[in-house]
Amino acid sequence: MNSEQLSERLKRVGSYVEKNARLADIGSDHAYLPCYLAKHRLIDFAIAGEVVKGPFQSAERQVRSEGLTDRVEVRMGDGLEVIRSEDEISTITIAGMGGPLIAKILDRGEKNAALASRLILQPNIHAWSIREWAEKNEWNIVDEDILEENQKIYEILVLEKGNMTLTEAQRLLGPILMKKKSETFQKKWLREKQEWVRILEHLPAEERPEILEKKEELRIKIQMVEEVL
């Protein structure tokens, strides 16, 4: 992968960045996404944020080699702290991390997240934690996507400011993905359900409170998936 040939996952993330946006890409991975969008004149300006020195330097080299230093600025800092109010950032992307970590980054940088009008988030696992965060922090899910690449399934969540109330099933499965019910969505949740059934069958028969609680949690999840599929 490079800034000319993005992975399908990053291309799909980039497709939700609005034309002429001012972008902050957090955990930018060589700044591939902002470089791609800047080269194709799809954004006005981007920050590529990195918290570790090595990836920060790699991103800097990438931006210089592409001749994009006038439109892509690489900054080192923890999460959303790389954003300043004068940057006038309209869109934030965070891709390729676990859902709980993305939610934690958004929590820690809540004030800077509020400077943007759109968040595009691609968790590798546990997307429910982002939906939970969005519901509590007055962000609304305006679109969702799901794709498979290299035998892994990824979800993408697009948030804009607004209130929403989700059911347990919507938090787990995604309110828009549930309606679209794509082949990839069905594949993911059929696989998850089969794994939960397997775990349930192998839990001990004893009636300790923690075991009973785990069994009930699995039964509820299995039922939610069955009702949607």
Automatic annotation (TrEMBL):
Pfam families: TrmK (PF04816)
InterPro entries per record: SAM-dependent_MTases_sf (IPR029063), TrmK (IPR006901)
Gene3D superfamilies: 1.10.287.1890, Vaccinia Virus protein VP39
Protein's UniProt name: tRNA (Adenine(22)-N(1))-methyltransferase
Organism: Chryseomicrobium palamuruense
